[in-house]
Design brief:
By secondary structure, the protein is α+β, with helices and mostly antiparallel strands. It has a single domain, classed as Thiol Ester Dehydrase, Chain A (Roll). About 15% of the residues lie in helices and about 40% in strands. It has 1 helix and 4 strands. It has a 4-stranded antiparallel beta sheet, covered by helices on one side. Strand 3 and strand 4 form a beta hairpin.
């Protein structure tokens, strides 16, 4: 998320939003279209708009229709700011037409 203004009074929703998509893109979303089934996160410190951050997504595994991923939000000096784990459920796009 990029903004020159503070979008929320709390940075917690911003941290959750930053952790959501990288997990999905770490999996094969084009070959296995999926929806987010569950996401759990731990916010260790609140991000500040004056700092730069990096988010890394990681594929953890696949089990049937479930895809397991994780994401980590790194702050200045490579400190871990927040982490998340996701479960994505594969869907058939034809079911939504």
């Amino acid at each position: 998320m990029a903004a020159t203004w503070t979008p929320y009074d709390s940075a917690v929703p911003v941290a959750w939003a930053a952790l959501d998509c990288p997990g999905g893109w770490a999996s094969d979303l084009e070959g296995r279209p999926s929806v987010l089934g569950r996401m759990t996160a731990e916010v260790r410190s609140l991000p500040r708009t004056s700092e730069r951050y990096v988010v890394v997504g990681e594929l953890r595994g696949v089990e049937g229709r479930k895809t397991f991923t994780a994401a980590t939000l790194y702050g200045p000096d490579d400190e871990v700011v927040a982490t998340a784990e996701h479960v994505w459920i594969t869907v058939d796009p034809q079911d939504f037409r």
